[in-house]
Sequence to fold (358 residues):
Amino acid sequence: MIHSRTFAVTAVGLVFTTLLIFISFLRFSADPASGASSLRWWQTHEAVDIFQPIHNETLGFEKIFVLNLPQRSDKRDILSLAASLMGIKLDYLESVRGEDVINKSLPVGQEERTMSASNIGSWRSHMNAIRTVVEQAFSSVLILEDDVDWDIRLKSQLVDFAKGTRYLLSTPSAAVSHSPYGDCWDVLWLGLCHDMLAKDDARVYVILNDPSVPNLTNLRSDSKEEMKQFPNHSRLIHMAGEPLCSFAYAISAKGAQKLLYGTAIKELRGIFDNALSWWCTDHSQNATCLVAQPPYFFHHRPAGKSNKASDIQDYGTTVNVKGHSQNIRWSTKLNLEKLLLDQTNYEDSYPDNQIMDE
Fold:
């Protein structure tokens, strides 16, 4: 069970004016009635509050889409197994190869095809997913790239994320809303490389003592210096500043309409994750985008040849002796065998008592 307390603290300094920090203290425990681990209890316990939908098979969203090239059956195999063991339902959408996108279909900004074929294919794959949200009138969809990984404690993590988003969206903690994450958001950026605090909205919801966050010594992030301004094992929820990478993001119905217009019809200024970042932060369509740092999803780099990892970038021909997922402590993909055998002594990829190699 997770127990949380929230306090308001006003801090002045850094490069910002006033920083309002809401602090959540997390503690994981077993269900006293069954003796089951916290993971198992959260999977079976029927919550009676506004966060109950987060414990369902789509994490509180109407659907979860995964972008996957049919040729990459290896990525689908491991992701499907990981999701099934966590009680998560995925809908796969076929990714597009850039070579199959004709020049006439490209929006203003890319009519001369200045992006690589792989980046054009990535953009079109995301646009097809977003267009599907619009066509099917889904209330919200979580969109994942096919190589992501997450912590075994994902569902309970997202409950605390929802408390942060509701605060930032000024949704009363007990108010009824269409989404457990609050209303009036366009994008929830759950998987990214890094971000900075928004210059025009420096509010931060800080989850303190989060055992799923690596300590600062082991944290891998380009935002590490910014993270050092907060206590160890902190996770930050804030408005988007300059987010980079789009491993995982949720989009609302209205957000999908606006994003389809902004990055497929009006113009395309660059590769998809940059276009999404600019759309979130340039205020041209008053987008409301929220970010979690460190993120809840990250690329998984499997064991074996490193060039297997990406269909967009070339990671060379070095060999990874072991797979890894940046900043994911109880990696679902690295604990598959333990989950299959109902073992609970999960491998911690970032133990506090060890200094990890860069």
About this structure: The CA atoms of residues 19 and 38 lie 33 Å apart. The chain has eight helices and 15 strands. Confidence is low (pLDDT under 50) at residues 1-48.
